[in-house]
Amino acid sequence: MIKMIRNFVNDESGATAIEYGLIAALIALVGVVAFTALGDTIADSFSEVAETLCTSAGGTYSLTAGGTNSCTFS
User: Fold this and answer.
1) How many C-beta atoms lie closer than 10 Å to residue 32's C-beta?
2) Which ranges of 1-74 would DSSP assign to H, the alpha helix?
3) What is the rounded distance in angstroms from the CA atom of residue 60 to the CA atom of residue 53?
């Protein structure tokens, strides 16, 4: 019985699983922060490309009442 208790106290396999869980959570958090920070930059880049294509084709690139950008031709 005492041997079982010693084995239980000295067992660190649960601690290892917790450490791996914390590492995975940290990596996920870094990913979310990075994608959130880059999201606006990527959206702005796509908007610039769309505006360039629109004006090159002779259209007018503007913000619509719905809050989105649109290319119109007259």
Assistant:
1) 10
2) 2-10, 13-56
3) 10
CA distance linking residue 66 with residue 21, whole number of Å: 43
Residues 6+ apart with CB under 8 A from 57: 71, 73
Are 59 and 72 in contact by the 8 Å Cβ rule? The answer is yes
pLDDT in tens, the chain (74 residues): 888 888 877 776 677 788 899 999 999 999 999 988 888 888 889 989 999 999 999 999 988 888 888 898 88
Q: 40-67 b/e with 16+ CB inside 10 Å = b?
A: eeeeeeeeeeebeebeeeeeebeeeeee
